[in-house]
Amino acid sequence: MTFKPVKKAIFPVAGLGTRFLPATKALPKEMLPIVDKPLIQYAVEEARDAGIEQFIFVTGRGKGAMEDHFDHAVELEQVLTERDKLDDLQTVQTCSPPPGQLAYVRQQKPLGLGHAVWCGRNFIGDEPFAVLSADDLILAEPGCLKQMIEVYNQVGGNVVAVEDVPREHTNRYGILDIESDDGKIAKAKALIEKPDPKDAPSTLSIIGRYILQPAVLRELDKHETGVGGEIQLTDAMASLIGSTDFHGTRFEGKRFDCGSRLGFIEANIAFALSRDDMAEGVSSILKEYG
Ligand code: UTP
Q1: CATH (one of 3.40.50.1820, 3.40.190.10, 1.10.10.10, 3.90.550.10) for 8-289
Q2: pLDDT tens, 72-101?
Q3: How far apart are the first and last CA of the chain?
Q4: What single DSSP character describes residue 150?
Q5: What is the residue with the minimal CA distance to atom 8 of ligand 1?
Q6: Does the pLDDT value for residue 290 go beyond 80?
Q7: Rounded distance, CA 226 to CA 205, Å?
Q8: Does residue 110 line the site of ligand 1, with CB under 6 A?
Q9: Closest ligand 1 atom to the C-alpha of 12?
Q10: Are strands 129-132 and 54-59 parallel, antiparallel or unpaired?
Q11: Of the residues 31, 109, 133, 220, which should be mutated to test ligand 1's pocket, given the most ligand atoms within 8 Å of the CB?
Q12: What is the pTM of this model?
């Protein structure tokens, strides 16, 4: 059986990023660099490598730096050309998807992840789509979304990336209530947003990668609020179970929660160590502090 291909992705980037204040007072959290590349660029590259052709950013106030980042930097490119810095020129020129593939829409109020995704609805139409949360950064080869699309091509429906978390952390994630599990793909019979550890039906948690059917947008039309008074994507997805399948896939790779300070620092170390031009220098720095 073949399923409609996933060609569109929503990047919800309208959050306030309060855990990174004051850095995020004027700078979008998604522009914080891991080594030398902003978080959002890792997410865009992961999506592009997975075959995504339309990139929909749900932005908010003060997020303009992201639009500039994915635009032509005419003066900079001119100076780099004049100075014959051709490697740097290529680096800045290959940041952006081709013209016409990027769209921006504003989420005027940060009412939750579900609301942010709903704000992108008019760009999605009647097609399956991906959602990538840039602050969940995943070191993986092939990229996490590409691995998910392989699973989607087998099972169709809705596919989320999952990983096991310590039970005491279930109240930070959407958690799967599992119907069946072959060790790689788990079929969900329910989804619970941020359950108390004692009530969590499993420890298999949804991380910031989703492949969703457009029906979820009709659920989000209802604007129902959940945990924290926010419009939760997990709740809208949960309402669809029964009429459409939900699978969680354990991806191969390592996820870093770059929305938290420790996760952000760990990601910087791990990504630097994974690079030939940085590994040696970073190891010797780490030994100094070990
Ligand atoms: P977070 O839960 O990390 O919230 O959002 P946040 O506001 O970005 O950060 P803190 O908790 O205040 O430090 C997860 C993802 O969902 C987006 C965020 O931009 C982030 O990528 N988001 C969240 C929205 O786009 N809109 C929202 O209303 C909420």
Answers
A1: 3.90.550.10
A2: 899 999 999 999 999 999 999 998 888 899
A3: 53
A4: H
A5: 15
A6: no
A7: 17
A8: yes
A9: 25
A10: unpaired
A11: 133
A12: 0.96
